[in-house]
Amino acid sequence: MDYETILYQLDEGVLTITLNRPDVLNAFNRKMTDEIQGALKKAERDPEVRCIVFTGAGRAFSSGEDLKARQADGVVGFGSTLRDRYNPIVLKMRNIEKPVIGAINGVAAGAGCSVALACDLRIISDKASFIEVFVRIGLVPDSGSSFFLPRLVGMARALEIAFTGDSVSAEEAYRIGLANRLVPAEELESATRELALRLAKGPTKAIGLAKRTINRALSMDLEQLLEYEVFAQEAAGASEDFKEGLAAFLEKRTPNYTGK
Fold first, then answer.
1. How many angstroms separate the CA atoms of 52 and 47, rounded?
2. How far apart are CA 112 and CA 141, in angstroms?
3. Which fold has domain 204-251?
4. pTM for the predicted model, two decimal places
5. N or C terminus of the chain: which is more exposed, having fewer CB within 10 Å?
6. Angle at 250 between CA 248 and CA 251, to 5 degrees
């Protein structure tokens, strides 16, 4: 499939989805959100995709919703925009049972910040920044930011970031837990590639089940979660990857996981 607003590149099990409207700081228009939805659905079905990386072309990750395009299209109200365009992206990113890494190369603002926070892991460039810019135009955080932000940085810090709309620098983002790793801009691609390849070569079934279980843990009590872990472990124990991992352990060799 040919894409107009994103790049879809699969190599050695790693799918890189690059937001590709650098002239407008990779702002989301309807075409881009439609293409991201389609790319994620394709990636979910493709067994060759073992890890997904999101990044941006040029100097930004994403500046959020393209407000100029929105006005030009005569869009009124935000309900359908969120329900039809953004919420499906965030839900798919969280529910897809493959690791999703955000390689945050520059500013991630508004819905761009929300998409960055929806990634499982974030490696950020020292030129990156996060801005919950909504309050600057009289709006509230959306596209999952209200869910992910307090879970990553705590309630008080999340409220401060949401209330002020101030930019969070790369160093501060790493310090407060918005990022897993902070690297020099020139090392972002190689650092992301190294981690993505490691995950792509791992036991995809187990990683997917771990993601599902930890997601569930956010809304379960301990007793419910313990029972869910039983289910997840039974499923993992029935996988080909477990058989291979066990055999490799006993034979003292490196496992060759297939993601099945």
1. 12
2. 11
3. Lyase 2-enoyl-coa Hydratase; Chain  A, domain 2 (1.10.12)
4. 0.94
5. N
6. 60
Say which residue the tokens 């990044």 belong to: 55
Per-position pLDDT tens, the chain of length 260:
789 999 999 999 999 999 999 999 999 999 999 999 999 999 999 999 999 999 999 999 999 998 887 777 666 678 888 999 999 999 999 999 999 999 999 999 999 999 999 999 999 999 999 999 999 999 999 999 999 999 999 999 999 999 999 999 999 999 999 999 999 999 999 999 999 999 999 999 999 999 999 999 999 999 999 999 999 999 999 999 999 999 999 999 999 999 89
- Which tokens hold the place of 217? 């843990």
Fold of 6-200: 2-enoyl-CoA Hydratase; Chain A, domain 1 (3.90.226)
Instruction: Check: CB of residue 118 under 8 Å from CB of residue 112.
Output: no
